[in-house]
Amino acid sequence: MPLSASQRKHLEKRLQEERSRVVRDLAEFARSESEDTRQDPNAELSRFPAAPEDLGTDASEEEVDAAISMRQSAELQQIDDAIERFKTTPELYGICENTGEEIPFERLDIIPWARTTVESATP
Fold it and tell me: N or C: which end of the chain has fewer CB within 10 A?
């Protein structure tokens, strides 16, 4: 059953909400990164680990933060692609790219940028 007008309106709102969330998260990450890179000449020693067991902790945290940022950037691209499909080819929004079947509204409500049904997405 095709999406109703009210479902489409709801999903359009959900796409915008999710886009705002990811943009906000990425901006917060960028803000924290810029704060971390500022140097305080009076706190020169605070940049170094206080104990040998602290070595590598900062690097690990930076790697995790970078991985999260990359995932969020990819998610933002997927959301933007879904918004574009929603606007330019609305007949394809909510249609599984693997099977051509409709993606259930419940799935789209959770992940409004979903491109496949759960069944066709899992191997």
Answer: C
Neighbouring CB atoms inside 10 A of 116's CB total 16
Domain range spanning residue 17?
A: 5-35+62-121
At 68, which CATH number?
1.20.120.910
- Indicate whether 51 belongs to any domain: no
What pTM does this model have?
0.75
Q: Is residue 43 part of a domain?
A: no
Q: Is 120 exposed, middle or buried (0-12, 13-18, 19+ CB in 10 A)?
A: middle
Q: What is the mean pLDDT of the chain?
A: 85
Report which of 116, 4, 15 is spatially closest to residue 107, judged by C-alpha positions: 116
pLDDT surpassing 80 at residue 59: no
Amino acid at 37: T
Q: pLDDT tens for residues 5-48?
A: 999 999 999 999 999 999 999 998 888 777 765 555 554 545 54
